[in-house]
Design goal:
This protein is α+β, with helices and mostly antiparallel strands. It has one domain: Nuclear Transport Factor 2, Chain: A (Roll), CATH 3.10.450. It contains three helices and four strands. About 7% of the residues have low confidence.
């Protein structure tokens, strides 16, 4: 009977480790896809990473259409021990077609894991491309 309990305990621990590994892989996949969408200035798809659809007015949408991302560089990633939240610090360089200038901003992204949908979503807002010095 003790042997059976030991085997069951090991099986439970193995399943938990596999689930944790899968969640980390899902986070990597999500962040890589988000970076690719951002790098190609695909703002329509980027908004789908948000947990709730955040309303964007026409002026904000037009502003994004004047932006071309030139680089997206992750500087730091911190993941909570329970694998429920991740914070990512990113430097974004972009060309503003309206001003004809390239700018750079530092942004902090907060990602949370949605247990019900088994996916990571972005809780923080899109960066404010109107005031790069304020970021």
């Amino acid at each position: 009977m003790a042997w059976y309990r030991l085997v069951m305990a090991l099986a439970v621990m193995l399943l938990a480790a596999c689930a944790s590994e899968q969640r980390l892989q899902d986070l990597d996949d999500t962040l890589n896809l988000y970076q690719a969408k951002f790098r190609w200035s695909n703002f329509d798809d980027i908004l789908r990473f948000h947990h709730t659809s955040k309303a964007m007015d026409l002026a904000d949408y037009k502003r994004l259409q004047a932006i071309r991302i030139t680089s997206y560089e992750e500087k730091q990633r911190i993941i909570t021990s329970d694998l429920e939240q991740a914070e990512q610090v990113v430097i974004i360089s972009y060309y503003d077609k309206d001003s004809g200038m390239e700018h750079q901003l530092l942004t902090k992204q907060v990602w949370k894991y949605d247990e019900d949908n088994q996916t990571w979503f972005l809780e923080s807002d899109l960066p404010d491309f109107t005031h790069p010095a304020a970021q």
